[in-house]
């Protein structure tokens, strides 16, 4: 008979006995017999209650039918009682290097012993109490590989250090490094972005940007490769190309160690939303995954290079789930603490990736905050994009915000705030329903995407730009939402997820002419850039990026995902149009209001003969979303700014203006 018993609260023990009736159970604290009460005895499990609170300094067991069984900690680790007893400052954990010695310190509550495995040696770590184990090793340990060996309930568990700065390939070992050798230049872009609405975000993948064959990049698909100013047919690629567009921020898709690519044989493809570690960068993005320093310095150098090009850097982080909960280093050190559970044994899965990180745990929260401090101090990042932000509790999110803003007042934070079911109470989720609770952190506006472009989930339907002109009320809110501050929401039509706008458009209009396709793409970009809010672009969107109708290309390979710079030449006029719209946005402050209150008296949207008229302050933007040329009578004095894909400079008074099909005109009242 095999029995299992767990502490789920300070006095409650759950005993599983798999259909076997248990009798004459005797509980022990060390060698002492304890008084207990058996309640709710069942065929599968039985609850036993102590008459005193658990003593974490002791080990508990029970005797049943002549055999002794350990009582393990389970959901008790999530109680305030446990956290108050074992809480420790995360800044005190990890490996701390000097040339003469290195100190190793691990937080591992309720284990029997911990050994440091390093350089072929096994060194016993001292128990400092309350879950802290420490050892000081003399000598210069620079580049030494190490990990910890825990003994718990008779089992041996080997685990890497979740606080280390670097690792060996595929996260098999942690590596000691001298962080004084890793110094970012701390270059600040020339243009200071004070308001969120002054930002224009451009999303990119490290790999995709230099994966195109024939690009002649020395280190393709790496941090280093993106630093090479390679030209194609005489025109720039990579970061110089992005800078030339006029955007302000690049958002880099996940760069921290992820699972589905073998760093020793990197032929696979993955976006990186399957974290193995938050503390170490992905080895396949470096020029040598065996060199522990390059994991740090090459990302530092890339960010310095981007800053030199007067662009800010936001990192996409996956703080809501990991690749595999059971093998994640923190979970191996303390089971049940770092992940949410839907019941006693099943993990909560609001992420649809198998697990949810328990961000509300004090040590988990502090760990994530420490990682953000490290990203800012070590890599000099300027912002964070949170994958599935709604699965992160509001307290953790706002604590990260406060830490980041203290270090960089202009630091940006935003994420996916979809209302998703998860293991958090509803009032603690960082979703759309609670956005006022995390002020200063923006969210992706899915309604903007769905109303302007169309729905891409389940039953597809076209949005306003793709032909459903009946969405007038929704389109007004997309351009000037007077209930939500523009600085709170990200306007986007396309990102790494789902089909590209071009692919979606072709599904809605399979027989449309190439010329009208191009006009429709231009109008879509105009909506993103000119609407009130924060504009967000997916790399290649400006030259009709296609993924060949792949709606989820997270592992579809380079052929589908690479940035095709040759396609840019074929759609050159769309790229020029985007640059023009960005110039307009930067020129007119009224397109970058921060507060909804600014819009109430200074803006309106109305419709005349299917023409959309968007007025804000003195600007009048006229959009013709139809397939026919239309005319609009203009009463008063106007200066024409933009018409027929070109900047213009002429005056109009009390006249009828032609607006060509699928086009826009921009006027200024004088």
Q: Would you write up a description of this structure?
A:
- Among the domains are: 4-73, Sandwich (Immunoglobulin-like), CATH 2.60.40; 83-159, Sandwich (Immunoglobulin-like), CATH 2.60.40; 603-669, Immunoglobulin-like.
- The longest helix has 18 residues, at 362-379.
- The chain is of the alpha+beta class and 670 residues long.
- The strands form seven sheets. The chain has an eight-stranded mixed sheet, with no helix packed on it. It has an eight-stranded parallel barrel with strand order 19-22-23-24-25-26-29-30, surrounded by four helices.
- The N and C termini lie far apart (89 Å).
- A hairpin with a 2-residue loop joins strand 34 (630-643) and strand 35.
- The chain is elongated, with a radius of gyration of 29 Å.
- It has 15 helices and 36 strands.
CATH architecture label name of the domain at 83-159: Sandwich
Q: What is the strand tally?
A: 36
Kindly name the structural category: alpha+beta
What's the CATH C level of the domain at 83-159?
A: Mainly Beta
Percent of residues in β-strands:
25-35%
Radius of gyration: 29 Å
Q: Give the full name of the CATH homologous superfamily of the domain at 83-159.
A: Immunoglobulins
Write down the overall geometry.
elongated
Major beta sheet, strand line-up: 4-3-7-8-1-2-6-5
Q: With helices defined by DSSP (H or I, 4 residues minimum), what is the helix count? A: 15
CATH topology annotation of the domain at 83-159? Immunoglobulin-like
Q: Could you give the distance between the termini?
A: 89 Å
Give helix % range. Answer: 10-25%
Largest sheet, in brief, is: 8 strands, mixed
Catalogue the unreliable spans.
Answer: none
Mean pLDDT across all residues, rounded?
Answer: 96
């Amino acid at each position: 008979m095999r029995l299992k018993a767990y502490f789920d609260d300070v006095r409650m023990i759950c005993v599983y006995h798999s259909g076997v009736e248990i009798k004459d159970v005797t509980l022990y604290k060390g060698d002492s017999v304890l008084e207990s009460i058996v309640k709710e005895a069942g065929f599968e499990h039985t609850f036993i209650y102590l008459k005193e609170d658990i003593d974490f300094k002791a080990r508990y067991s029970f005797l049943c039918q002549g055999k002794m069984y350990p009582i393990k900690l389970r959901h008790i680790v999530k109680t305030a009682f446990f956290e108050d007893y074992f809480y420790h400052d995360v800044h005190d954990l990890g490996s701390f290097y000097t040339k003469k010695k290195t100190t190793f310190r691990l937080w591992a509550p309720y284990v029997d012993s911990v050994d440091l495995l390093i350089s072929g040696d096994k060194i016993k770590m001292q128990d400092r109490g309350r879950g802290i184990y420490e050892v000081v090793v003399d000598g210069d340990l620079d580049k030494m590989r190490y990990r910890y060996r825990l003994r718990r309930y008779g089992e041996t568990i080997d685990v890497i250090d979740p606080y280390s700065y670097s690792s060996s390939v595929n996260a098999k070992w942690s590596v000691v490094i001298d962080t004084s050798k890793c110094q970012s230049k701390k270059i600040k872009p020339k243009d200071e972005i004070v308001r969120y609405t002054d930002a224009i975000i451009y999303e990119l993948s490290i790999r995709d940007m230099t994966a195109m064959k024939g690009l002649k990049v020395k280190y393709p698909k790496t941090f280093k490769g993106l630093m090479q100013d390679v030209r194609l047919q005489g025109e720039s690629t990579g970061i110089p190309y992005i800078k030339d567009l006029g955007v302000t921020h690049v958002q880099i898709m996940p760069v921290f160690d992820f699972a589905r690519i073998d760093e020793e044989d990197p032929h696979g493809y993955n976006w990186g939303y399957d974290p193995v570690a938050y503390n170490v960068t992905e080895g396949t993005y470096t020029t040598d995954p065996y060199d522990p320093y390059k994991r740090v310095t090459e990302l530092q150098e890339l960010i310095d290079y981007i800053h030199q090009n007067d662009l800010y850097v936001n990192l996409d982080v996956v703080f809501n789930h990991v690749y595999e909960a059971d093998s994640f280093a923190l979970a191996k050190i303390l089971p049940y603490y770092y992940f949410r559970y839907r019941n006693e044994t099943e993990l909560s899965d609001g992420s649809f990736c198998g697990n949810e990180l328990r961000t509300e745990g004090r040590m988990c929260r502090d760990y994530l905050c420490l990682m953000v401090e490290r990203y800012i101090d070590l890599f000099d990042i300027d912002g964070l994009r949170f994958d599935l932000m709604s699965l992160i509790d509001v307290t953790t999110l706002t604590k990260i915000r406060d830490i980041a803003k203290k270090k960089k007042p202009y630091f940006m934070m935003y994420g996916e705030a979809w209302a998703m079911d998860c293991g958090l109470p509803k009032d603690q989720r960082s979703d759309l329903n609670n956005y006022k609770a995390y002020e200063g952190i923006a969210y992706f506006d899915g309604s903007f995407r769905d109303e302007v472009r169309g729905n891409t989930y389940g039953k597809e339907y076209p949005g306003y730009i793709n032909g459903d002109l009946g969405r007038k009320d929704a389109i007004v809110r997309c351009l000037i939402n007077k209930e939500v501050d523009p600085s709170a929401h990200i306007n986007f039509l396309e990102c790494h997820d789902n089909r590209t706008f071009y692919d979606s458009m072709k599904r809605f209009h399979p027989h449309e002419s190439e010329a009208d396709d191009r006009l429709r793409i231009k109008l879509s970009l105009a909506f993103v850039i000119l609407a009130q809010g924060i504009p967000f672009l997916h790399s290649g969107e400006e030259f009709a990026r296609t993924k060949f109708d792949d709606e989820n290309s997270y592992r579809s390979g380079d052929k589908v995902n690479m940035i095709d710079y040759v396609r840019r030449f074929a759609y050159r006029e769309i790229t020029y149009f985007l640059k023009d719209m960005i110039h307009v946005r930067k020129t007119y402050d009224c397109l970058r209001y921060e507060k909804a209150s600014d819009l109430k008296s200074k803006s309106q949207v109305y419709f005349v003969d299917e023409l959309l008229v968007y007025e804000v302050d003195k600007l009048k933007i006229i959009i013709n979303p139809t397939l026919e040329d239309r005319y609009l009578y203009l009463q008063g004095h106007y200066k024409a700014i933009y018409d027929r894909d070109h900047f213009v400079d002429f005056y109009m008074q009390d006249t009828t203006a032609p607006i060509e099909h699928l086009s826009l005109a921009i006027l200024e009242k004088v």
